Amino acid sequence: MDNRSTPAGRYFSARNLHGHYRSAGTTARYIFASPDLESSLAEFLDLLKSALWKNVERHPSLCIGVTDETPSSEAQFFRHEKIEWDDIVEVLPETLPEESEDIALSKQLGMGHQHIWKDAYTKPSWKILVLPHGYQTSSRSRTIDIAFLSNHAIADGLSNVAFHRSLCEYLYKASSLSNLVTTWPIRIPATVNPPVPIEQFITIPSDSSDLSDASDFSPWTGPAPSLDPYTSRCTILTIPETSLTHILKRCKDNSITLAGLLHAYITIHLARSLPQASALLATTPYSMRRFTKTSNHEMVNHVSICMSSFSSSIITEIRASEHGGEAEWKVVRMIAAQFQRDLKKDLETIEKEGSTEALTGIAKIKDFDEYCIGQIKKGKRGGSYEISNLGLTDMPNPDESEEYVKLRLEKLIFSQSGMVAGSVMSLNIVTLKNGPMVLTITWQGESLEEEFVERLKGHLERRLLNLEGMRK
Questions:
Q1: pTM reported for the whole predicted model
Q2: Which of 192, 195, 297, 382 has the fewest CB atoms within 10 Å, counting from its CB?
Q3: Beta strand residue intervals within 295-350, DSSP E
Q4: How far is CA 110 from CA 3, 98, 221, 440, 442, in A?
Q5: Cβ neighbours of residue 114 under 8 Å, at least 6 residues apart?
Q6: In sequence order, what DSSP letters do the residues of 78-124 get, joined into one string?
Q7: Distance of CA 45 to the CA centre of its chain
Q8: pLDDT of 423-470, one tens digit each?
Q9: What is the pLDDT of residues 318-335, one digit of tens each?
């Protein structure tokens, strides 16, 4: 087993160790039918024990930990000899009947994302949270959330979806069986190797010059980064499938992408809410799997990031325009078009040079610990906001030929830990095929007031659900 980590792995390992970026996560919400209130949760956990066992066997990344970097050794991948159920599964208390399922989940995700992955030699760099909601007597069912959280060094956003896709399949299969026998812990065979790192597929330029922050561009990046105290926050917005269909049609009619539209809506709201903001810097992670030839069904960390600078002239045009008016719509299309150009430029650079500016920058970092310390000392965060869209996700369906379908997937929710030295907040999106699009806004609690984020969420909800300001 080659346990050497690579620049991207060491980068995310260091950010985790220093508490700057702790985890990405995706939650699957299931409706579990059970005639018995008292045994419904225990019955579901039996299914999960069987399905999770198979899922660990399916994905090598789940068997791999990442050790911390020390003065004498770099961060390294580590294969676990065994995985204990109690080390990776936390069953949370049932939510209160009067509490919204999304509000209850957002609180638990916030707390879950505060965890820093340590003790790599004894515990995996991932875990799942099981959040049971109240039993519905009328339908004889209960809603149960399964949140998968992991160190970004072993799994990117699409890996979160890959985890749930295979777990969902195994859960459906287990639900049709009458006899489930699963013995924990799981013993990991010596043949399991770390996932292939992205550096094996890209070309890092030989130029080893230091990174430079020299630029006249000065975007709003919120308060100075700080780790003490640290809380991670999350809020959830669900857009029904019917509304999403109308949104996508309007986007197509206007030759803009959904991500471009969301960049415009966020930029407009921030420009009008923050009089001190003269410019904004947006980041957009995107998958590199088309270039690494890696299936979306596999768990890897193959991702890069696109940067978009929205200048003072754009901010001025927004402030001079009327809400929902023609001038504002012109700016919407301008911002969406700029994002598409920025992303196209990144993709063309990969095809021509074999790498991206972001990955080349990571490879040039000589000391990852010093880099993280320097991010705090610099006194400025790395961006205004991030949009991370996992796109449309096709998940397994239950066997409808069964007389009694026990389990149905209702929606997926993508979230991240609040960033300390990165973007002030992140808009995270995932859409279930034949289901809703779910957006979360995640942020460090000390960087923004909750009321500010809730106003942004309300702005996005009105724009998206009412097609407010969109032209046909």
A1: 0.94
A2: 297
A3: 303-310
A4: 32, 20, 21, 11, 8
A5: 22, 230, 231, 232, 417
A6: EE-SEE-HHHHEEEPPPPPTTS-HHHHHHHHHHHHTT-----TTTS-
A7: 25
A8: 999 999 999 999 999 999 999 999 999 999 999 999 999 999 887 667
A9: 999 999 999 999 999 999
